[in-house]
Each structure stands twice: as C-alpha cells, then as structure tokens.
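REVIEWER CHECKLIST
Item 1: Sequence provided? yes
Item 2: Single chain? yes
Item 3: Sequence as submitted:
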Amino acid sequence: MPVAFITGSSSGIGRAAALRFAAAGWDVAINFSRSAKRAAAVVAELDAVGAEGRHQALRGDVRDDVAVRSVLGSLIAAYGRLDALVNNAGTTSPTPPDDLDGVDPADWDRVFAVNVRGLFQVTRACAPLLRTSHGSVVNVASVVGLRPGPQPLAYAASKAAVVSLTRTLSRVLAPEVRVNAVAPGWIDGEWMRRTLGDGYDTLMGRRAARTPMGRNVREADVAEGIFALATSHPFMTGETLVIDGGYAATS
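Item 4: Structure as written out by the authors:
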C-alpha cells in the first residue's frame, strides 16, 4: 500500500486530507504536537474508512529537528516507505494585520518556526524516502501568500515563504520528487471564525456572494486538491494551486 504522512493533521485541512487518502486505500500516518486525544479520534476515523490498524498518529513538534527525525524513524519502522508528504502543520498570530506596532518579534519567530522552518525540516527528513518511491510533496500555503488579505502579517509572510519554498524545493528534489502547493481561500470553519471574530458571518457571506462557485471553500475541497496533486499530474511541479471557487481570479 502507498503511504502518506500528513503533518498537523489532528483537525482541519490535515484531518480532511488524511481521510481522503485513507478512503483511496492509502496507509496514513498523521502528525500532532499536543492534541493526543484529537489525533486518536482521527486515527479511529481513518480506521473506519480505510484498512483498520494501518494508520498511526505520530507525536512530534515540526519546529524541533530532533523530534522530526524521531518521527521519521517511527514512520520507517512502521511502513518502510513514504509516497506522499503533506506539509500542513501551521499556526498564526493574534495580532491584527494593520497593527504594525503590535507585532511581537517573538511571536513572528514562532509563526515562522512552524510554518516555514518546520516545513523545511520535515521535507528534508523525508526526502530520501520520497526519492526512493518517486513520491510527491504537497505544501499547504494560502491565498494570503499570493495576495493581500485580512490575516496577521506574520502568517501572510510565512505563507508567501511557503510558496517560494515550494518552487525552490521542486528544483532541488527533481526529477524524482514533485513538489507543489495548495493555496486555499477563506475556509468555512474554526480558523476563519477566529480570524474574523464577530464579523465572521457577515464577511463570509459577502465573500460567498462574490465567489463564482456560490460558496466559500470547505476543508474537503482542499483535501481533494491535495490528493490530486499528490497522485496525479506527473509532469506538474513547483506550482501553487489556488482553491477558492474562482474568487481570486474574478475579484
């Protein structure tokens, strides 16, 4: 069976992507750093849709290179191969996007440590396995890495770095490994609710009305894009796929 490793997958996009791979018959290793209970619940969901007992939750902080190497050791012991890596682990800052003076350098470094350094460290650790299998990497970026949006500065800048790293790594790991990214738009759910606060319903409704597909993005939409990039398009690498129902293309 092919094997997928998905970071930051105890909830949200990571969970949705894990379920998509499992439904297609893949063995899935999910990663988490703190939420063991939620990770166990996701593994139970994976067992319900895929081959029971073949899915695992591996604890490790992507910011810590020693922990990353330890997780990869566990993955190798369990499966002996890796066919797809999804770099989904991510975090954000509570500072409003227009509050320049409110940006805390320590908070900035924390966001970049997870979203950028973590992505690099995991990809570097996985590269030998992916080269052997001629596998694929899919990084989770964001539309705010491509154009301005109502997201904290540290988060937006980190996602722009993810887009840049996707292009660079596609060259470094070629021709054995393809590296692409998805850039979701505003996703209905917890993340945007925290970002938009009291304005969530109004702003999300306005966004949906201006989206050609007539609604906002769902986690399952992003998961489908991730799966397609990982398993199809054998000559596509270094690209960032925008998943927003056409909003960015028409607004």
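Item 5: Key structural point noted by reviewer: Residues 63 and 114 are 5 Å apart (CA to CA).
Item 6: Recommendation: ____
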